[in-house]
Write a structure and sequence with these properties.
eight-stranded parallel sheet, about 20% helix, globular, binds alpha-L-arabinofuranose
Length: about 650
Amino acid sequence: MYTKKLIALFAVVLTGITAYAQSTQQLSVQVNKPGALIQPAMWGIFFEDINFAADGGLYAELVKNRSFEFNDPLMGWDEVKQDSGKGTILIINRKAENENNPRYARITVNAAAGAYGLSNEGFRGMGIEKGKVYNFSMWASAPKGSTLQGRLLLLDEKGQQVGEASLSGFGNGWQQYKASLTATGTAPKAKLQLLFSGKGEIEVDMVSLFPAETWKHRPNGLRADLAQMLVDLKPGFVRFPGGCIVEGRDLANRYQWKKTVGKPEERQLIINRWNTEFKHRSAPDYFQSFGLGFFEYFQLAEDVGAAPLPIINCGMACQFNTREVVAMNELDPYLQDALDLIEFANGGTDTKWGGLRASMGHPAPFNLTMIGVGNEQWDEQYVERYKVFEQALKSKHPEIKLIASAGPFSKGPMFDYLWKELKTSRADFIDEHYYMPPEWFLANASRYDSYDRAGGPKIFAGEYAAHTKEGKDAESRNTWGSALAEAAFMTGLERNADIVQMASYAPLFAHVEAWQWRPDLIWFDNLRTVGTPNYYVQKLFSTNKGTQTVPLLSNGAVLAGKDSLYASAVIDAASKKLLLKIVNVSSAPVQLDIRLEGAVAAKGAPVQQVLSAPARGDFNTLDAPGRVVPVEKKISASGNRLNVTAAPASLNVIAVPYR
Ligand code: AHR
């Protein structure tokens, strides 16, 4: 009995020693051997109008179907009769007169007492905050109703009034009428009533309500809280407008940037391709008003200090959908759109498109340096069309870098074919996409360590996200486990910054009640927003980007999965900091004994930022946004040695001042 106990005790001690011995890792960082430059644009963002990311999301307009142009012109609108007020509503179509915005509502009011009018439901309601100012505007003409009195009401979910303003002095002929109101209550799902009393007729169009506090207080602006989430990422580039939305389900539905610039009321609305894409998440009220158009995208990129990266249609609709391509002899207008886009972004104010940019309030150029030709395209028809674009763009604009597509898959015959064709082209980047399970991201952390480096284009990891099947809640697929796998993969991107020069997670935004695709980087409702664990992974990499890679080795080899560890290192020349990213995907802590080569720790304590969670299935929600967020702690270094603990399932970003 005694002997048995002793043996058991011995076994426990031995296991403990072995576990300790296995979990202490010796790492060396060759600070004296700086390698590839980290491109300023390395970690960027991918914006696509999916999941109500634009209308109902980043674009701060609160009125849905403001110009009655949805297929069902009164979708989102309801007739309102107050007390004995009566009337009728007619939708008039004046296509010959106004091709882009043909419809308006004619409201005939018979309300000597009471009121009659319309109510708008917003995008899954309107987010209204007590004490905040809201700016209303509408275009109207009242040929037979100049005595009508108008009233705006904001009502909360229970029908209680949370805001009010009045409108009057309507005249014959289209004019814009404006009113401001201060909300007296908070309502995440308010609605707007536009009521008239008296007798007469009024025609209304472009009925609009914006918070006064848009991003940078711009009219026609962006939701400030969502824009701030982007600013905090310090992205190196902003890719826009997508994604498959560039392609459209068919060519008629493709993204045409020229239709998204100029006065908002002259931008032609089209159906959003994500309206019908997924039967299980259909969104019949999903359209593109283009209130957030190319001018605003360029401005956003400028605001966040990022390089603009537009993707243009190359004469191909979505190959997963209709497979419609434009005939080769009719490709010119598509090419012209690309050339004109360069003029819009960079041209002098004396040029046609540069002049339009100036008239919209931005005479200075937007410094466009790169363009993506097509989104997820493949096969010979892509290569054929890409080459026409390449020939024209490179000869007219050699200063613009070109991005070509490697298709939607991370490997396989389609991928190999495109790489073979494009390797010898003049494309500057190949756009690779990976929507794969977390295991793929772990296995591919060394993907680029042995990539062919002999000439040819660099890599743009233009869309990626680890897709797990866990979870029922909207935000739940953005689990810590998925983010951890992405972090491991990103060490491989950073380590290979000589060939991987840009990367962006996708998609960027999702409304919790109106999403079509998940996971997504940032979730929001009408008043709140939450960063996912994946968001914090992106943020930790992009805010600790550094300027040059340095080798981080374990027994002379890169660390990409050995003992469940993944790592990369960069130095930041300006701040003289060494920035280590160490990912431990095991369920046990790991002791790291890190030796700097050719440098010693300088004054100032090293800082370790740890992103971790009790369980890999954990995720952040709007109600609990802080479950998985980085925690910062000071650690110590002595000479050229640093001892660090990497917690179970954690991303660790360690900043060490050095000399
Ligand atoms: O990010 C969502 C979609 O995934 C993009 O629109 C498309 O490019 C990819 O298939």
